[in-house]
Write a structure and sequence with these properties.
Helix Hairpins, 11 helices, globular
Length: 269
């Protein structure tokens, strides 16, 4: 027997059924499960980046369960339910893809196109997508360019999104050399703050430096969060080698010794 989405919805309703459901699930709210949603999303990303595709299905299921949980809460409060979530999503995606659904319906089609032309059309499609999103924001009453950028995004991701929004109205460097020069400028200002011993200024200048680095990533079409996660994994891999080689002497080894082991770890990659 293979379970379906209807079975999952039924299971969720049973978990939240007063008197016979799960005591833990019955106590939950939108806010209490939000941290789990973030955790499950990160686990999906981590599985993909590690290319652990054998476990990807399980992680995607855990993330889907978060949506099902929210839909049950919405249904209980007569706000929304899973079918209305799906309806809104399909409607939005059809509206944002007029190059695929020309009449604004799921059934409408365009003629077959030459796949070799797709790459050239990507900029046009992206521009149209952003224009449609901007129109949707205006219809929701969002006036400022930056108004609906979520404050709960990871800081590097939010920096890139803020910069992307500003770029959409022309506030941007034309080339990556601009943010690279800005990084050098911010680094000099951070060094000056360090020399002055001003901790508050050091924090501010370090923030400016990270913000400028995120701008370089955006110009290079690199996800700054993904880049930093990669750097973290690289550091872990190399340090674990140092740890293994040093053994019981790890805490007492000199920096010169540790640096030599670090160099060996780099050479093995």
């Amino acid at each position: 027997m293979t379970y379906t989405i209807d079975d999952l919805l039924y299971l969720m309703a049973r978990l939240r059924e007063p008197g016979t459901g799960c005591p833990w699930d019955l106590k939950q709210s939108y806010k209490t499960i939000a941290p789990s949603t973030l955790e499950e999303a990160y686990e999906v990303v981590d599985t993909i980046e590690r290319e652990d595709y054998d476990h990807l299905r399980e992680e995607l299921g855990d993330l889907l369960f978060q949506v099902i949980f929210y839909s049950q809460l919405g249904k209980e409060e007569a706000r929304f339910d899973f079918p209305t979530i799906v309806d809104g999503l399909v409607s939005k995606l059809v509206r944002r893809h007029p190059h695929v659904f020309p009449d604004g319906t799921l059934e409408s089609r365009i003629g077959d196109r030459d796949a070799s032309q797709d790459e050239g059309n990507q900029d046009e499609v992206k521009a149209r997508w952003e224009a449609i999103k901007q129109q949707e924001r205006a219809e929701k009453g969002v006036k400022g360019v930056l108004d609906d950028v979520p404050v709960t995004l990871p800081a590097l991701s939010r920096a890139a999104k803020l910069q992307k929004r500003a770029s959409g109205v022309g506030f941007d460097w034309p080339e990556v050399s601009g943010p690279i020069a800005k990084v050098r400028e911010e680094l000099a200002e951070l060094e000056a703050a360090i020399e002055q011993g001003d901790h508050s200024a050091q924090q501010e200048e370090l923030g400016d430096l990270l913000f400028a680095a995120a701008n370089i990533a955006r110009h290079l079409k690199v996800d700054p969060e993904a880049a930093l996660r990669g750097a973290n994994r690289k550091f872990e891999r190399r340090f674990r080698y140092v740890e293994r080689q040093a053994g019981d002497q790890l805490g007492s080894a000199s920096l010169t010794q540790l640096d030599r082991l670090w160099g060996q770890a780099k050479q093995q990659e």
